[in-house]
Design goal:
It is built from two helices and three strands; from the N terminus they run βαβαβ. With 74 residues, it is α/β, with parallel strands linked by helices.
């Protein structure tokens, strides 16, 4: 039985997520996890963030070089 491992990935370059997710999936699978990646192309607004919080992600990855975006965590 594999355990789900949920990642929320905020990245404006979808190709980057696709390239990295495959390697992460292989790595996590070898350790007994089923990787579930949710990709957002931009930082979520307050309403979207409230919905995302309910999904209980294990890891949230943010693009370090984003263009002047604001992520509001409340």
């Amino acid at each position: 039985m594999r355990l789900d491992y949920k990642i929320l990935w905020v990245e404006d370059v979808a190709d980057w997520v696709d390239a990295c997710a495959g390697e992460l999936e292989t790595h996590m699978f070898s350790r007994g996890f089923e990787l579930k990646v949710s990709h957002l192309g931009q930082a979520p607004n307050d309403e979207e963030m409230q919905e995302l919080v309910l999904d209980q992600y294990h890891l949230i990855l943010m693009d370090y070089n984003r263009e002047k975006t604001k992520l509001a965590l409340k």
